[in-house]
Amino acid sequence: MEALQRSYGVLGKSAFTPGFGVEDPVVRERVRVAPRVEPFRVSSSARHLRTRESGGLTWRHVGGNEEVKGGRDARSVTTRAALLRGLGGLLKSGYVLRHHEIVDEHTAVENTGDVIEKLKNGFKNFKKTEYNQKPDLYAKLAEGQEPKVMMITCADSRVCPTMLHGLEAGEAFIVRNVANLVPPCEGSGEHHGTSAAIEFAVTVLQVDRIVVMGHSNCGGIRALMTRDVYSGDFVGSWVRIGLPAKKKTLSLMSGKPFHEQCTFCEQEAVNVSLANLLTFPFIEERVKAGKLHIYGMHYDFVEGQLTSWEIEHEEVPVHA
Predict the structure, then answer these.
(1) Residue 211 CB-half CA count within 13 A
(2) Is 106 part of any known ligand binding site?
(3) DSSP assignment, residue 186?
(4) Could you give the CA distance from residue 11 to residue 148 in angstroms, rounded to a whole number?
(5) Residue 156 marked as a ligand binder
(6) pLDDT band at residue 210 using 50, 70 and 90 as cut-offs
(7) What is the pLDDT at residue 46?
(8) Model confidence over 123-142: pLDDT tens digits?
């Protein structure tokens, strides 16, 4: 555990996650931002001429510049100034960063039906009706996160775990991917996003519940069921994790309508992912000790139903 935390740079507490911090005094000095009260300008591409106050600071967007007058604590302003000086510098030649702006409940955003405008207006509503109404919650979250559950769900736009389960910010550590699949634990390769998230959730955040949730009409499962070749593209290489579920589906559901086969495979693919979770030594160890529990779920948005089950460890009797 300690070696893993050191590899993450985890030493002491921070405002990011419990156990994460900056121990190196040189690094600590670099990330410390001193309050500043003198006016200064930050280059930006803000498009609105407006003035607002936030956190004791006065912001005035003027053409392509942003003028900031400091107040009680200009930490965020200083951070933003440093950010904008180098942001986008790694973009491919010919691409530039534009329209960089801060949005809050006071920001003027048009409403022409553009999806980005919808996202900004949605945030404005969130800021007014959620964030500003729960100062204690968000003050606590500013100190760190301590979720009790990790959810691994599909990236499908019809599946929103926070909305489905009434979760507030900080309650669940959520990973979304195609077909909510969990790969088996293996050490080859470099880009294991889901495996990295699992390791982080269990060994650092120390969640005590993991839920893998599938859903109806899953495009990833349909791809798994209809394809014969799984190489040559990212989707095929990924969904082949679920091949054991496909094999079982074709064995048990032979002759059944295709949509019934897919429904069965959606749930069995969850079980494949749960089995793969147990290939991670730090998960199996905790499950056997009763410190971690793993669950499967299937959300049927056609019928409006949720199916839930748990995987438990049983001692296998030894016969003489």
Answers:
(1) 22
(2) no
(3) -
(4) 21
(5) yes
(6) very high
(7) 37
(8) 999 999 999 999 999 999 99
The verdict on whether residue 185 carries a ligand-binding annotation is no
Architecture of the domain made up of 146-311:
3-Layer(aba) Sandwich (3.40)
Instruction: State the DSSP string of 106-163.
Output: T-----SS-HHHHHHHHHHHHIIIIITT-HHHHHHHHH----SEEEEEE--TT--HHH
- 3-state secondary structure at position 103: coil
Question: What are the extents of the domains in the chain?
Answer: 1-29, 33-94, 103-144, 146-311
DSSP letter string, 260-318: HHHHHHHHHHHHHHHHHHTTSHHHHHHHHTTS-EEEEEEEETTTTEEEEEEE---PPPP
The pLDDT assigned to 315 comes to 78
| CA pair distance 20, 15, nearest whole angstrom | 8
Q: How high does pLDDT run on average in the chain?
A: 80
For residue 178, which of 231, 220, 224, 215 has the smallest C-alpha distance?
A: 220
Q: Which residues contact 298 (CB under 8 A, 6 or more apart)?
A: 213, 214, 215, 216, 266, 267, 270, 306, 307
Model confidence band, residue 55 (pLDDT cutoffs 50, 70, 90): very low
Cα distance between residue 197 and residue 211, in whole Å: 13
The first and second tokens of residue 38, run together, are 């003198």
Look up residue 121 and give its two tokens. Answer: 């207006």
Distance, first Cα to last Cα, the chain: 37
215 is in an annotated binding site: yes
What span, in angstroms and rounded, lies between the C-alpha atoms of 252 and 295? 23
pLDDT > 90 fraction of the chain, expressed in percent and rounded: 60
- The pLDDT tens digits of the residues spanning 139-175 come to 999 999 999 999 999 999 999 999 999 999 999 999 9
- Whether 60 and 41 have beta carbons less than 8 Å apart is answered as no
